[in-house]
Amino acid sequence: MQDGINPQTDDQSLNAEGESPEANAAAERDAAAVQALIAENASLKDKVLRTLADMENLRRRTEKEVADAKLYGVTSFARDMLTFSDNIKRALENVPVEAREAAVPVLKSFVEGMDLTQRDFLSRLAKHGVRKLDPQGGKFDPNFHEALFEIPDESAPAGTVAQVVEDGFAIGERVLRPAKVGVTRGGPKA
């Protein structure tokens, strides 16, 4: 024996590959730690990708909400202003054409001013995305029209808008107020 080393015990402490059990255990721990780190890395990578996707979805949703707010932000105000437009229209319709022509110049100017005011008001609404629905002669659409009555008419297809009682308005793709209409009945199917 040299220097207290027992060759027999040293030979027994080596495994088939020539490594000690302590080295094997350390290698297994290291391998397990590496596998745990790889799994943790994959998990964190998945979380980061999901977070990035969520942030992108949030950005898109926020952009859409901002665009909708810009487009539809005036909806309530515009709906209230439609009554104003209707009242001006009714006032102008109650002045017969003969009375307009025979009126004194001051009254004639007043009626023309009211007419210009109504057209200007409608153009300003249009500038903010509010458009007038023009259903006359078109097919009845319950999304944009409200049928008040039916008109017997064999010459027009059934379901055609024959008369507009009250104008309808929309902002963007949303209806502010449906057009109140009379619809044909009795003709051929549309």
Explain how this protein is built.
The protein has 190 residues and is of the alpha+beta class. The chain has three domains: 8-72; 74-128; 130-190, Head domain of nucleotide exchange factor GrpE (Nucleotide Exchange Factor Grpe, Chain A, domain 2, Roll). The protein is built from five helices and six strands; from the N terminus they run αααααββββββ. The strands form two sheets. The protein has a three-stranded antiparallel sheet. The protein has a three-stranded mixed sheet with strand order 2-6-3, with no helix packed on it. The N and C termini lie far apart (113 Å). Mean pLDDT is 86; it is low at 7-12.
**Helix-strand topology string:** HHHHHEEEEEE
Helix run count: 5
| Strand segment count | 6
User: What share of residues are in beta strands?
Assistant: 15-25%
Count of all domains: 3
Largest sheet: 3 strands, antiparallel
- Mean pLDDT, to the nearest integer, reads 86
Cross-sheet strand order for the largest sheet? 1-4-5
User: How does the overall form come out from the CA principal axes?
Assistant: elongated
The helix content is 55-70%
Distance between the termini: 113 Å
The whole-angstrom Rg is 41 Å
Identify low-pLDDT runs.
7-12
Class from helix and strand fractions: alpha+beta
